[in-house]
Amino acid sequence: MKKLLNSLFVTQPDVYLSLDGDNIVLQKEQEKLGRVPLHNLESVVSFGYTGASPALMGYCAERNISMVFLTMNGRFLARVIGESRGNVVLRKRQYRVSEDETQSAHIARNFIVGKIYNQKWMIERATRDYPMRVDVEKFKEVSQQLSAIILEVRACEDLERLRGLEGQAAISYNKLLDQMILQQKEDFYFHIRSRRPPLDNVNAMLSFAYTLLANDVASALEGVGLDAYVGFLHRDRPGRASLALDVMEELRGVYADKFVLTLINKRMVSKDDFLKKENGAVIMKDEVRRSFLSEWQSKKQEKITHPYLGEKISWGLLPHVQSLLLARYLRGDLDEYPPFLWK
């Protein structure tokens, strides 16, 4: 159980939620785990299938407290609300901003600042932890390039220019990603990003990690009442969760890339875990995919201190916190969307 930004996150498995007066009661089997006053809450987010009492849902619906239900793995199931009030206002604001490219750029540039800042952090961390195994001079040079690009991004008000700057940063960062692979170099290497299909072991893992992260972010956005398919940097395209792709930009390197590098460098995967198809596509074997998912869920339980909130949360709650912050910005409660800047 964790209370953040007037939202209660119930992350323990098999917890039933009920109402006692003006309090929400968390119960597992016959044991009461805790009770939280409802009068200051805006939403309750529950991971798992156990459910909530009709009395609690009715109470929350009457007072405009949303209840969000996700699987233990973070897949969105449902969002229960009463009469459409705050939710419709939030989405109308989201749609208006998305239609205005200048306003969209003001939000999008913070996603990009977060992405480049976190890539720079990974580069600096590599020079500190492995000075004898990476080209420190080259890493420092790219770090300075990324710092310069961040300054340009912060002043940019044009979406096309933003995309160009993001592309420049990606090229510089990708040149060093291969050096961050410290083990099994013959079988795991990164020369260029290949997506459809992935053409090597590393790209196969990155594609799967990005898919998982996009799904987690989309669930978080739906949980706060935003439309995951209407973005600001990524424009509308049928079937594409554009806003999820926006928000996950700042998490790609520090969350997904770092996760894949850890699996390789700790020898938790090997060349025998992959298959190459006739068209050149490389895929993970089914049993390895299941192991990958298990490790991903374990990663989501690890604790970090959120740099903006100054509170300890799990990695798995990070998409939900960023979604809440984005919703607050769109409502006018924050002057600027605060990207996740890892330290």
UniProtKB/TrEMBL annotation:
Known cofactor(s): Mg(2+); Mn(2+)
- Sites binding Mn(2+) sit at 166, 234, 249
Record keywords: Antiviral defense, DNA-binding, Endonuclease, Hydrolase, Magnesium, Manganese, Metal-binding, Nuclease
Q: What is its EC number?
A: 3.1.-.-
Q: What class of enzyme is it?
A: hydrolase
Query: Which segment of the chain is annotated as a signal peptide?
Result: none
Q: What do we know about how this protein assembles, alone or with others?
A: Homodimer, forms a heterotetramer with a Cas2 homodimer.
Q: What is the protein name given in its UniProt record?
A: CRISPR-associated endonuclease Cas1
Species this chain originates from: Cohnella cellulosilytica
